[in-house]
Amino acid sequence: MKFAQVSEFENCFFLSFEQSKENGLPVKGKWRSEYFKNDNPIVLELGCGKGEYTVGLARRNPDKNYIGVDVKGNRIWTGAKTALEEKLNNVAFIRTRIDFIEGCFAENEVDEIWITFPDPQPLKTTIRQRLTNMIFLNRYKKILKEDGIINLKTDSEFFYEYTREVIKENKLRELDATNDLYADPSKRDEALTNIKTYYEKLFSDKGFKICYLKFRF
C-alpha cells in the first residue's frame, strides 16, 4: 500500500535503470524552475530512509530546498506524507539507487549533500559500495557546485576513519571532524544534534558514539 501511494505523491519522483541510461528525470536541471519555483539552494540527503533529516532540515530552513533519495519506496513514504501534510513546499523525494544520482541532477545543480547513517560495508569485497569511496564521490562532484559541501553522520567509527583517509589521500578539504558529536554539541549547528534519524536515535540509545564529517572537493 505504501509503495503504491508513494508513486502517486506529488512530491515523489522515480528514476529507473533505463531512464538513468537515457535522459534521466524530466526535472533534471530544472528543479528550481519547474518544481520548487525558486532560486534557493538545493540540499540532498542520500540514503534518506524515512526522511526524518530531510523533513527536519526543511522545517528549520524554508529558504532552502531539500530532496531525500532512497531506493525503498516504503521508507520514503513516511517523510513524503509528513511533508505533504505539513505543506512543506521545499521538500521532494526520489526513489532510485544512489548509483543513478547523475540521472537526477544536472552539473552544478546541488549545493550540499548529507549522507546519514549509511551501511558501512566493512568487507573489502564491498568497498565499491561505500557511499564515500571515490567512485561515488566523483558522481557527487559532477552534480555539486564548485564550493559544494558534503556532510556525513555515522555510528561506525570504521566508516568515519575510512572516509577521512579517502579525504586525505585524494586531497579533499576537511572542514570539520569529530568521532563523538554529542561530547560538545554547542560547538556546531543545533540541527546536527536536535534532528535525529531513526537509526541515529537507535544507535545513540544503545550508547554508540555518533561521528560527523564535513568536507568539500
Structural features, described:
This protein has nine helices and eight strands. The chain is α/β, with parallel strands linked by helices. It has a single domain, classed as 3-Layer(aba) Sandwich (Rossmann fold), CATH 3.40.50. It has an eight-stranded mixed sheet with strand order 1-4-3-2-5-6-8-7, sandwiched between helices. Strand 2, helix 4 and strand 3 form a beta-alpha-beta unit. Helix 1 crosses helix 5.
Task: Itemize the secondary structure elements and their pairings.
Blueprint lengths: L1 H7 L3 E3 L2 H5 L9 H6 L5 E5 L5 H9 L4 E6 L2 H13 L5 E5 L14 E7 L17 H10 E11 L2 H13 L3 E6 L12 H4 L3 H8 L5 E6 L1
Parallel strand pairs: 1-4, 2-3, 2-5, 3-4, 5-6
Antiparallel strand pairs: 6-8, 7-8
Name the features:
217 residues, alpha/beta, Rossmann fold, eight-stranded mixed sheet
Q: Which CATH architecture?
A: 3-Layer(aba) Sandwich
Helical/strand content category? alpha/beta
Order of helices and strands: HEHHEHEHEEHEHEHHE
CATH superfamily: Vaccinia Virus protein VP39
In total, how many beta strands? 8
Give unreliable regions as ranges: none
Helical fraction equals 25-40%
Count of discrete domains:
1
Number of helices: 9
CATH class: Alpha Beta
Spatially, the strands of the biggest sheet line up as 1-4-3-2-5-6-8-7
C-alpha Rg (nearest Å): 16 Å
N- and C-termini, Cα separation: 41 Å
The proportion of residues in beta strands is 15-25%
State the CATH topology: Rossmann fold
Question: What's the short version?
Answer:
This protein is α/β, with parallel strands linked by helices. The protein has one domain (2-216): Vaccinia Virus protein VP39 (Rossmann fold, 3-Layer(aba) Sandwich), CATH 3.40.50.
